[in-house]
Amino acid sequence: MKESIIALSVMATLLGASLALGQHEKPAAHNYKADVFVYAELAKAPDKARAKRNPMENDPDAVAAGQNLFGQHCSECHGNSGYGTQKAPSLRAEQVQSAAPGAIFWILTNGVVRRGMPVWSKLPEPQRWQLVSFIKSLGVAPETSEKKPD
Amino acid sequence: MTSRVPLLFSTCCLLAASAFFPYAGRAQESPYIVTYDHYLEEPGNLEVEYFSTFGTQRGGNDFHAFWTELEYGATAWWTTELYLDGQTTFHDSTIFTGLRFENRIRPLKREHFINPILYVEYERKNGADKILKEVEGHDVESDFLVPNAEARKEHINELEFKLILSSTVKGWNFAENIIASKNLSNQPWEFGYALGASRPLALKASAKRCSFCRENFIAGVEMYGGLGDRYSFGLNNTSRYLAPVVAWNLPSDWTLRLSPGFGLNGNSHAFLLRWGVSREITSFGSAVSRLFRGRT
Predict the structure, then answer these.
(1) How close is the nearest chain B Cα to the Cα of A33, in Å?
(2) pLDDT at residue A24 above 90?
(3) DSSP-derived 3-state class of residue B86
(4) Contact status, residue B101 vs residue B79, Cβ threshold 8 Å
(5) Which CATH architecture has domain A30-138?
(6) How many domains are contained in chain B?
(7) In whole angstroms, what is the distance from residue B95 CA to residue A6 CA?
(8) What pLDDT was estimated at residue B286?
(9) What does pTM read for this prediction?
(10) Tell me, what CATH number does B200's domain have?
């Protein structure tokens, strides 16, 4: 009996902490500094990953397919048009648009787990490259720090 | 009435998910029902799942066990989950069999060839539990011969630990789970395993949204069984199963899973048919937070 009370207490504490942490991670106001940290992850991509060419770059359907995938998996946090939301940074920022396709692919594969972006390696490689094609097609927005409403 | 709690609860949750959260996210869910891979729930998302297992029983009545899962992504590295379990044994009764609370934690920041996940679960169930979510120790088919009225008198408090190892290579996912569980009533440690392999039927996404495109289907196989306990480790007097699995990730945000399973020795149920339905609700955490804090 004593053991089960201890186990229940531990689990209840974990549940409370997970909800609290989940709410803590919800940004009450957009924090541009956090974007800077996330963009900095692009620079951490190894040279080998950065040098990879997008095998979908000549596929005429890649951007449309990537747009579908973006709507399904990414727009919730990055916004429907990629301008970013309170949850995640803009993908139309200079840092993203000037990054090598291989670096964006590397971020998709590895996520930025400690800053809330999950790993997306569960999407097969061709789908991640289709996403890269779509993200690169967005282009740079004139004012990336000022989020446009989606 | 309480015996149908998991079924009613999951139906209510799934209906509420449809009614109140019309902008659910499209899931890319794995087809596994027993095995875990290293992919956690996206942060802030809630996945509502209902699963059934129909099992044959030699020398007794066949059964239908069912459970509801509420899976919440607390962070990108931590998923927490609540289960409610129940079962119907034909020509016997329908009963609520207990609850489980599990946590999965990703210790490494980046993807590696093999990705570990740490899993800890507390189970508070009775002896009539038949969901077979994992097989461990010397769990065998004849354990299920006890009538519900007798079996439910046994109360079990159990801690379960898993080391989940998972790799994704060229569209294939390979997952291995090593299970160790401890009944808190002075029982020995019990061990088990689950293995899985799966792959989407197509690796490229279509340019148009479609329900029947091959990339929406993920097929695979899983194998699971017991490994004895601390005093008699090994495959002797254990049960084991092989089960093909398929998941259909619908663009309308629902995922359907189907898995016929086959017992591989005389200690196992000859046939298990499992199926499940789930829906992922995006930004659930933010929505709940807004309810209590007002709009931010």
Answers:
(1) 19
(2) no
(3) strand
(4) no
(5) Orthogonal Bundle (1.10)
(6) 1
(7) 27
(8) 78
(9) 0.86
(10) 2.40.160.40
**Over residues A39-51, mean pLDDT:** 93
Judge whether A110 and A98 are in contact, CB under 8 Å.
no
Task: Enter the ipTM.
Answer: 0.85
Q: Pick the more confident residue, A93 or A144.
A: A93
- Across the interface, do B111 and A110 touch by the CB < 8 Å criterion? yes
pLDDT of residue A29: 43
Partners of A13 on chain B (C-beta within 8 Å) are none
- Enumerate the residues of chain B whose CB falls inside 8 A of the CB of residue A118: 39-40, 42-43, 73, 76
B135 token code pair: 């097989």
Strands B93-105 and B78-89: antiparallel
Nearest to A68 by CA among A140, A148, A130, A120: A130
User: What is the domain extent for residue B148?
Assistant: 2-293
Phi first, then psi: give them for residue B183, nearest 5 degrees. -70, 125
Give the nearest partner residue to B39 out of A10, A29, A122, using CB atoms. A122
- For residue A26, give the chain B residue with the closest CA: B286
Taking CB atoms and an 8 Å limit, are B80 and A18 in contact across chains? yes
Confidence of residue B256 (pLDDT cuts 50, 70, 90): very high
Q: Which pLDDT value is given to residue B285?
A: 82
Q: Which of B42, B72, B281 should one mutate to test binding to chain A, selecting the residue with the greatest count of A CBs within 10 A?
A: B42
Q: Is B237 a residue whose pLDDT tops 80?
A: yes
Q: Amino acid identity of B125?
A: K
Residue type at B37 in one-letter notation: D
